[in-house]
Amino acid sequence: MPLVETSSPATTDEVESGRLLSWVGTVDHKRIGILYICTATIFLAIGGLEALLMRVQLLFPNNTFLSPDFFNQMFTMHGTTMVFLVGMPVLVGFANYFVPLMIGARDVAFPRLNAMSYWLLPMGGILLYFSFFTGKAPDAGWFSYAPLSTKPYNLQVAQDYWIIGLLCLGVGSVAAGINIVVTVLTLRAPGMSLQRVPLFVWMSFMTAILTVLALPALNAALAMLLIDRWLGAAFFEPDRGGSAVLWQHFFWVFGHPEVYILILPAFGMISEIIPTFSRKPIYGYAFVAGSSAVIVLLSYGVWAHHMFAVGLGMGADIFFAVGTLLIALPTGVKIFNWTATMWGGSIRLTTAMMFAVAFLLEFVVGGLTGVMFAAVPIDWQLTDTYFVVGHFHYVLIGGTVFGVFAATYYWFPKMTGRMLSEKLGQWHFWLWVFGLNATFMSQHFLGVMGMPRRVYTYADNPGWMILNMFATLGAFAMGAGTLVLLWNIGMSLRHGKIAGDNPWDAFTLEWATTSPPPADNFKTIPEVKSRRPLWDMSQPELADWKHGKTPEDSGRRPSKALVCAWAFVASEAVFFLLLLVGYVVFNSQHLEGPNAANSLDVARTGAFTVCLLASSLSFWFAELALHAGKMVHFRRWLGMTILLGAIFIAGQIWEYTGLIMNDITVDENLFAATFFTVTGFHGLHVMAGLVTLSILLSLAIREDFTSKQIQVFRGVGIYWHFVDVVWIAVFSIIYLGLMQ
């Protein structure tokens, strides 16, 4: 009995769905994945052009091709584009397309949320690039260090577009991450335990967890910077008591996990491609998966190795140096897993496999130079030189980009039904291998020779011009290789060889359906007994489940609503944690003017706090009534919850009114700035909860909400209880002075 439906003549609906406009309203995870990849490709062309402009400027010493100001704009836009508009979206695109297929699901858990996540990508990109129409683009670097990004040093509205654009991208990324987490945990095929999922799925799952927990740190920093610029606060203005170093802490709390957000999916891609073309199962599956979880945990304890030159102190330097060395272990040992997989295998050297092997070699260079920066004296010497630029480009290009190229050649037949040209693939491969090493190995030498980064030109020092010319030649070689790939894709879509369902004789479930897959992916969801289900079906006598047992699947799947709620709450917890850290940092010493002791009415706020906490109790009673099917009691308790929450908001409005009447506003001092920021965002979360609860009450009154939807209600309850828990922390720290 076939597992998938065979192709049939196109119906009128299918022809209609092929029209361009249908892509705008699509919620099909495969189409959204393609939209992500195509959008990232457009921004790759833009970001690549920006890189080439910079390389032309650096071709000769004392060059005037670009002005200093425009050069700053180019390296700011290039870095921002490549990280936020190319690297992350293309990986999310592959995850969107293949994770549901590889776990035997019909779609992602929340298709409409998936569509919203995508459309925030072009919105953020358009906002970012609209800044050019304001007279100039952002010029404070992709890291936007304060105080260069604050109003006194940067009056341009372009910086505001940078902030708002990244906030859009951050919200979309968190939503996409939550969707992947819920999809993997709740929609796996029968028999597919978490210990049997393909490694690309596992790495995408780990990446989604990182995204959910890391992006809110950036969102919190961006919100504070926007409040500085628009409302006159001074979080990051040292002249008014703020801290430029705090921006670096907040940014790199996001920024270092971001490195693994960009590399873990590439690890997963390589972990699928190398076994397929070596005709062997992955060596050490459990270690590859487990070490990735270790990376997720350790990635939050190494951010300050980006800040060794700041002067954090010997204790902090030692702690983050040790953390950097530790995280290199689970990252580096994977190289041996992939090498051992190839050892003794029947290797088929396709273009995809060539990029996978090149990934191993190039990523090792980037990894080893990264470990060098764990030595604080080396970091002090090289941190502001081109050595750093060479290092992270070896990681992001030799790692992420080569992984994406390998995945493109590997999965293009599944996505389109046609094969890419191997001959053109060879040209693409060698142009990029030459270009990468010519450009960024030269920059390692330039860094050791003392050439600083982030400068628009350089003096005619011995050897610098030759190395820069070689680097520029390599950059143009990579640009030519990209054009070869695009030509290959265009020609193959029209005239490429028909691929068939499984041209590589691969092992995982995406190859069990047609190429390209139908709208609902599978006619029959296959049962999984091992990590290589297609091998088991094609070689029943040698089936993996007969010769090596993997942990059985219990068959239980958690509620989508509850997993989504917990994931969202986790992301918001990080957001509020950083806001509260900012409050503690700025209020741990005496401030002139308004402060908590002389400005806040603790007793009055305590009374309203009791109302908010009581709303959690009334919500619990509403949940019990819903579970028992007592809809009248459910509506009463739910109405009581809304009333108590509204009373709390009224109390907060009362407090704000009194403060403003006494001329205590967000721009008064750092107490006022941190107080209004923390309590204001909490109030917005309470109001969002009240709107949600009111919608549920409206549905209950219309009898459209029943006890069958208890899991949805519990999910809302997780959020509402979280809001109350956050307020306990806020009240304890701000009103009662805990930790000050």
Shape: globular
Major sheet: none
Low-confidence stretches: 1-17
Nearest-integer average pLDDT: 94
Number of beta strands: 0
Helical percentage: 55-70%
Q: How far is it from the N-terminal to the C-terminal residue, by CA?
A: 69 Å
Radius of gyration: 27 Å
By secondary-structure content and strand pairing, the structural class works out as mainly alpha
Order of helices and strands: HHHHHHHHHHHHHHHHHHHHHH
Strand content: under 5%
Number of helices: 22
List keywords for this structure.
single chain; 740 residues; mainly alpha; 22 helices; 0% strand; disordered N terminus
Can you offer a commentary on this structure?
The protein contains 22 helices and no strands. Residues 1-17 have low confidence and may be disordered. It is an all-alpha fold and 740 residues long. Helix content is 69%, strand content 0%.
Question: What is the strand and helix layout of this fold?
Answer:
Blueprint: H1 12-17, H2 29-57, H3 68-102, H4 111-130, H5 158-186, H6 199-231, H7 244-278, H8 285-298, H9 314-342, H10 351-372, H11 376-382, H12 386-416, H13 422-448, H14 464-495, H15 533-538, H16 544-547, H17 560-587, H18 596-599, H19 602-628, H20 631-661, H21 670-701, H22 710-735
Helix pairs in contact: 2-3, 2-4, 2-14, 3-4, 3-5, 3-7, 4-5, 5-6, 5-17, 6-7, 6-8, 6-17, 7-10, 7-12, 8-9, 9-10, 10-12, 10-13, 12-13, 13-14, 17-21, 17-22, 19-20, 19-22, 20-21, 21-22
